[in-house]
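Re-run with default settings, no changes from the original entry. Doing this only to confirm the output is reproducible before filing.
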Amino acid sequence: MAEAEGLSCAEFVELVTDYLERALDTRSRLRFEDHLAECEGCETYLEQMRETLSMLGRIPRQTLSEEAQRRLLTAFRDWNATPL
């Protein structure tokens, strides 16, 4: 198999959710894992995302006020719009 094309950190971040949900095609998964093996910062980011998902999975949605939900959604939208 030919060597996988390189993946930037920004591209890595965009693929994290699909990776964790096992939704990447084989080529994308290999590119992702190749980058992960070489980039300590992205390895840390992936572990932080896993921990966040693990913790958030324990919080029933009903326990968040509508205001808290709105603020979280706004924060994530703003973060996603910020260039890396």
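The mean pLDDT is 83. The two ends are 31 Å apart (CA to CA).
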